[in-house]
Amino acid sequence: MTEPVGTPAERAAALAAAARAGDRRALARLLTAVENHTAVAEQALRVLYPLAGGAHLVGITGPPGAGKSTLVAALIAELRAAGRTVAVVAVDPSSPITGGALLGDRVRMQSYASDDGVFIRSMASRGHAGGLAATSTSAAAVFDASGFDIVLLETVGTGQSEVEVAAAADTTVVLEAPEMGDEVQAIKAGLLEVADIVVVNKGDRPGAQRTAAQLRAMLAPPGEAGRGSGPAARRPEVLVTTAMSGEGVPALLAALDRHRARGSGEATPAARRARAAAQVRGVLVERLWARLAAPGLAGATDAALEAVARHDTDPYAAADALLAALGREETR
Fold first, then answer.
1. Which residues of 232-265 are buried (b: 16+ CB within 10 A; e: fewer)?
2. Three-state DSSP class for 274?
3. Residue 109: closest CA among 75, 156, 151
4. Strand, helix or coil at 95?
5. Distance CA 79, CA 251 (A)
6. Which residue has the higher pLDDT, 235 or 206?
7. How confident is the model at residue 251 (pLDDT cuts 50, 70, 90)?
8. Residues 6+ apart with CB under 8 A from 156
9. What pLDDT is attached to residue 148?
10. Residue 193 to residue 174: CA distance in whole angstroms
11. Surface-to-core class of residue 149, CB atoms within 10 Å of its CB (0-12 exposed, 13-18 middle, 19+ buried)
C-alpha cells in the first residue's frame, strides 16, 4: 500500500484496515510504529484491541541454548502443513550500538519470507528485563486482530527473568536441554511454576529421556511423585522433541491444541486481568517518564537522578519528590 496520509488517527485506521485485509507491508509498518511508540501506533491499537482475542497466544521460553528458535521454526512447519497461519514475535538481545535486535529471526527463518501464512517479527529487548520486549504484547495484539490462528512469543532467553511471558500467553512452553543442569536453574527462576508444557529439546542427545523423567517427578503434585497419578491440569505435560529433525513436534502441537481445547489454554478471568495489568502498567510507566522528561519537569527529574547517583538521597525519596512535582504541575 502507499503511505497513508492524514491525521495520526486517519493513518492508523488505514494501516489497521490494510493489515486486517492481509497487506503485509501495512502490517510491517504498523509493527514498526508499535515498536517505536508512535502516535499512529497508539491510535491503531485503539482500533485493533477490541478485535483481538481469537488467536492462541503461545509463549516459548527457557535458558539460552535450549533451542527455542529451532523449535519455533519446526512448529511453523507443522502449523503450515496443517493449513494454519502463524505469527512470531521473536525477542532478541539489543545491540549496544544501534539498539536493534541481534541474531534476528528474520535471518534464521528466511525460508518463510515468501509464505503469506507466516509473519515473523524480531524485536529488540531494549533493556527490558522480563524476557519480552516492552511492546511484545501490543505486537501480539496486532497479529491477533489481523487474523493469525496462532501467535508464538519467543523470549530473549536470559534464563532468569522469563516468567513475564506467562502473563502475556494463553499457553506457556518452557524448554530445557538434556543433562545441562538447566532444570535446576529453571526452578530458581520460577520457570517451571509458570509452565503449561515442558519440552526437553535435543532429544537425540544422551540423557534426554532421563531428564524428562526427572522433570515429571519434580513436577508431580505433592505426595504423588513417581506414581504417575493426580489431576493432569495441576501439572504440565513433559515432552521430548528434536527440533532439528522435527521429531516430537507433532506431539507438541497436539499438546498445545489439547491445552486450549480443555479451556486451560484460553485466558481465565484472573489471567486476563493479569495481562491487562501488565499492559496498562507498561503504558503508565512509559507515559509517566515522558511527562517527567517534558520541559516543565525535566530539570527536577535530572536533579533527582543526580542526587540519587551521588547518594545524596535515596530512590524512594526521589520518586516521592518527582510524584509531588508532577502533582504540582497538574494543578497549575
1. eeebbbbbbbbbeeeebbeebbebbeebbeeebb
2. helix
3. 75
4. coil
5. 12
6. 206
7. very high
8. 91, 92, 93, 125, 131, 132, 162
9. 97
10. 10
11. middle
Write out pLDDT tens, residues 221-235: 655 544 444 444 457
Q: Where are the domains of the chain?
A: 1-51, 53-266, 277-331
C-beta of residue 259 within 8 angstroms of C-beta of residue 59: no
Rounded Cα distance, 123 and 130, in Å: 14
pTM: 0.81
User: What torsion do the CA atoms of 260, 265, 270, 272 make, to the nearest 10 degrees?
Assistant: -90
Helix (H, G, I), strand (E, B) or coil at 254: helix
The position carrying cell 527455542 is 68
Say which CATH class 277-331 falls into: mainly alpha
Greater confidence (130 vs 109) lies with 109
Find the helix or strand (DSSP H, E) in which 123 lies: strand 118-124
pLDDT digits (tens, 9 = 90+) for 139-181: 999 999 999 999 999 886 654 445 667 777 889 999 988 866 6
Answer yes or no: is pLDDT of 239 > 70: yes
Q: How many CB atoms lie within 10 A of CB 64?
A: 13
A 10 A CB-CB count for 164 gives 20
Cα–Cα distance between 91 and 109 in angstroms, integer?
A: 14
CATH code of the domain made up of 53-266: 3.40.50.300
Looking at every residue in the chain, the average pLDDT score rounds to 81
Does residue 238 contact residue 251 with C-beta atoms inside 8 Å?
no
Q: Max alpha carbon distance in the chain (Å)?
A: 69
The answer on pLDDT for 105 being more than 80 is: no
305: number of Cβ within 10 Å: 14
- Burial tier of 266 (Cβ tally within 10 Å: 0-12, 13-18, 19+): middle
